[in-house]
């Protein structure tokens, strides 16, 4: 996979040289190219922003350097290359989820455009949206100083899904929000050696050797953690996501099954 990042702070992307992403780059599994947007400016101050039309606070990133940068990067792929997916980090974008990470991990080429100030002149997004697959993506309901941190988040989430990047190919199968799980559940607690630490012992079921009981225990732990930390995931789950053991576990936690089959939070009235 090829990843291009255009930014006015290339040094912010140095973490892409370490950990799993850095190792994947060293092995040639990831071709990561970080570009300084100011290289496509033509004045002595390397200006990349200007005041917004219509007034208002802040500055807006100019379309000219972005257009030149993206044109040159796209052209570098050659005439036979599949066009890249343009990923635009923005608080007003589609939420970044595990499902979207999986979807983006299937693309051979991604170009990220982390902005600063009040964002990029909208015409850049519209122009490339006419010719390319453009994804405006948000990593959460909050505002950062720029899009570089979201790029780091997204690249790590995407890269670890690529074949060979994780040491164990099965490692991401049971992740929180992993596609294919019966319902969107948070991952339960995990343990390793030693079996006793500071008076705390690991759950006995994990050393029982009974794979069915272990799987059920892990599922129940995931249900309990999700119910406590993300009850919205329980509420909106398709009733078909639950087997009879799940339903019993949720009821034991105080959740109430509604007439439509979905579960409501403890203490809430059951719909008639």
UniProtKB/TrEMBL annotation:
Alphabetized InterPro entries for the sequence: Alpha/beta_knot_MTases, tRNA_m1G_MeTrfase_C_sf, tRNA_m1G_MeTrfase_TrmD, tRNA_m1G_MTases_N, tRNA_MeTrfase_TRMD/TRM10
Positions of the tRNA methyltransferase TRMD/TRM10-type domain: 1-235
SUPFAM superfamilies (UniProt xref): alpha/beta knot (SSF75217)
Compartments, as annotated in UniProt: Cytoplasm
Catalysed conversion reaction: guanosine(37) in tRNA + S-adenosyl-L-methionine = N(1)-methylguanosine(37) in tRNA + S-adenosyl-L-homocysteine + H(+)
One GO BP: tRNA N1-guanine methylation
Chief site of localization: cytoplasm
Enzyme class of the recorded protein, top EC level: transferase
Keywords linked to the UniProt accession: Cytoplasm, Methyltransferase, S-adenosyl-L-methionine, Transferase, tRNA processing
Residues reported to bind S-adenosyl-L-methionine: 139-144
Enzyme Commission designation: 2.1.1.228
Molecular function, one GO term: tRNA (guanine(37)-N1)-methyltransferase activity
Entry GO CC: cytosol
Subunit structure: Homodimer.
Family membership noted in the UniProt record: Belongs to the RNA methyltransferase TrmD family.
Function: Specifically methylates guanosine-37 in various tRNAs.
Record protein name field: tRNA (guanine-N(1)-)-methyltransferase
Organism: Streptomyces daliensis
Gene that this polypeptide is encoded by: trmD
């Amino acid at each position: 996979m090829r990843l291009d990042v255009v930014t006015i702070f290339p040094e912010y992307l140095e973490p892409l040289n370490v950990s799993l992403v850095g190792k994947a780059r060293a092995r040639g599994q990831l071709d990561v190219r970080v570009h300084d947007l100011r290289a496509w400016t033509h004045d002595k101050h390397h200006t990349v922003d200007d005041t917004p039309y219509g007034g208002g606070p802040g500055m807006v990133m100019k379309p000219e350097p972005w257009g030149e940068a993206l044109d040159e990067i796209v052209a570098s792929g050659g005439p036979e290359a599949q066009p890249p997916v343009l990923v635009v980090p923005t608080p007003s974008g589609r939420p970044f989820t595990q499902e979207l990470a999986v979807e983006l991990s299937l693309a051979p080429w991604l170009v990220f455009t982390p902005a600063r100030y009040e964002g990029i002149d909208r015409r850049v997004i519209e122009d490339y949206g006419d010719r390319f697959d453009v994804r405006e993506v948000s990593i959460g309901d909050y505002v950062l100083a720029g899009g570089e941190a979201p790029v780091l988040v997204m690249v790590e989430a995407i890269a670890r899904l690529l074949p060979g990047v994780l040491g164990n190919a099965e490692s991401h199968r049971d992740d929180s929000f992993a596609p294919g799980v019966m319902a969107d559940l948070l991952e339960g607690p995990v343990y390793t050696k030693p079996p006793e630490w500071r008076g705390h012992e690991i759950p006995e079921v994990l050393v029982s050797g009974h794979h069915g009981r272990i799987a059920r225990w892990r599922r129940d732990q995931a249900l309990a953690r999700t119910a406590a930390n993300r009850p919205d995931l329980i509420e909106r789950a398709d009733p078909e996501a639950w087997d009879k053991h799940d339903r019993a576990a949720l009821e034991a936690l105080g959740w109430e099954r509604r007439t439509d089959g979905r579960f409501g939070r403890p203490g809430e009235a059951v719909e008639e």
